[in-house]
Amino acid sequence: DSSSGSSGFFSKRTFPGRVPAGIGRKSLRIVVTGGAGFVGSHLVDKLISRGDEVIVIDNFFTGRKENLVHLFGNPRFELIRHDVVEPILLEVDQIYHLACPASPVHYKYNPTNVMGTLNMLGLAKRVGARFLLTSTSEVYGDPLEHPQKETYWGNVNPIGERSCYDEGKRTAETLTMDYHRGADVEVRIARIFNTYGPRMCLDDGRVVSNFVAQVIRKQPMTVYGDGKQTRSFQYVSDLVDGLVALMEGEHVGPFNLGNPGEFTMLELAEVVKETIDSSATIEFKPNTADDPHKRKPDISKAKELLNREPRISLREGLPLMVNDFRNRILNGDEGKGL
Ligand code: NAD
Ligand code: UDP
Ligand code: UDP
Questions:
Q1: Residue 226 Cα to ligand 2 middle (Å)
Q2: For residue range 79-95, what is the model confidence (pLDDT) as tens digits?
């Protein structure tokens, strides 16, 4: 169905006005799916602090109430335990769609990328909300073009172990553009490159969280393969600024949101060692299948059209997450949902 505003249960509706956000701008009602997660909770903080109403939808698959507990009791904040694979009725102005099992150990478990994205696009269509998809650099697969521009179509294995994530996000991008073209939904697509910072899941196997937690626990850092593969690491506040600029701007995208500073895993281990404990060691482990050899965003499009570029380098950003990790590890909180 590509019509906008069909009749019946899910027909287009209007909803009552709301509190002012401050001088010169009407307050918005915004849904953040996956808002109890790492990136989502930082985004929610930013939206609440600028005066908007925020509704978080999260099933706590990898997210945690602790990431949002400081907002409980704020009348502009609501938290709904809900799986976006099921339909939901809400009346909102904007939808940031982040919900997704986002790391290799989790993402094979559910069809969130397809069914969840479809439901959020259906919601956006019904209420006339603007919809932002958080896609990923993984849509480029093991890239044959370096650095990756948004025009690159990618090199993805459709039947590999990672493909439920890569292809799930590719399908989510397709659905997003179909609703844009076919149903006039206002959409935005961000392709996010590896991001790190406080509140990252401790146990989801990503490299920055693994290395930082391992060094705090006085364990060796596990380098997969020969450690010469590269990634580009972005601090979370730079990402959140980029997401908001994209949502508020006039351009659909897709936009690469990332930090072009490129590091091998061995170099990353060295920076973690310098930052936290100069006696830290590494150990080599076999790499996972289909691991991309290199990844680095070309961010000229975001620079030109969104006027955005990252401000925080890896050496500046890593120390900003160490206290949060230390506290959670000391408290025995391994990042499980409540
Ligand atoms: P995260 O795991 O911390 O957050 C994801 C959130 O989605 C969690 O709170 C989880 O409970 C929730 N969720 C998962 N499935 C759900 C479902 N079916 N219904 C409701 N909620 C559900 O991960 P993150 O790093 O914050 O990632 C946020 C988004 O950014 C994801 O879409 C991810 O694909 C994208 N992204 C992140 C990175 C990165 O480096 N962090 C890189 C590329 C893309
Ligand atoms: N949907 C939803 N909330 C809404 C509107 C739609 O969850 O407010 C879901 C709906 O259940 C459907 C999906 O979004 O599964 C796509 O909706 P759309 O109206 O585009 O498709 P249709 O229902 O016409 O197939
Ligand atoms: N990696 C590693 N040690 C770890 C976890 C990951 O060397 O403990 C490597 C992994 O093989 C990959 C890179 O770090 O080459 C980034 O992995 P991550 O899962 O963080 O992100 P993605 O592969 O999605 O970019």
A1: 46
A2: 999 999 999 999 999 99
Please answer whether residues 310 and 296 qualify as being in contact, where contact means their C-beta atoms are separated by less than 8 angstroms. Answer: no
Residues 125 and 233: their CA atoms lie apart, in Å, by 34
CA 41 to chain CA mean position, Å: 10
* Segment among 4-13, 181-190, 272-281 with least mean pLDDT: 4-13
Residues taking part in catalysis: 165
Radius of gyration of the chain (CA): 20
What order do you get walking across the sheet with 94-97 strand by strand? 77-81, 53-58, 29-33, 94-97, 130-136, 187-192, 255-257
* Predicted complex ipTM: 0.97
- In this structure, which ligand is nearest to the CA of 338? 1
Q: Answer positive or negative: Cα dihedral of 32, 36, 42, 48.
A: positive
Sign of CA dihedral 287, 288, 293, 298: negative
Residues 296-334 have pLDDT tens digits of 999 999 999 999 999 999 999 999 999 999 999 988 865
| Protein residues with CB under 6 Å of any ligand 1 atom | 33-34, 36-40, 57-63, 83-85, 98-102, 110, 112, 116, 134, 136, 192, 194-195, 201
Taking the C-alpha atoms of residue 312 and residue 314, their distance in angstroms, rounded to an integer, is 7
What pLDDT sits at residue 190? 98
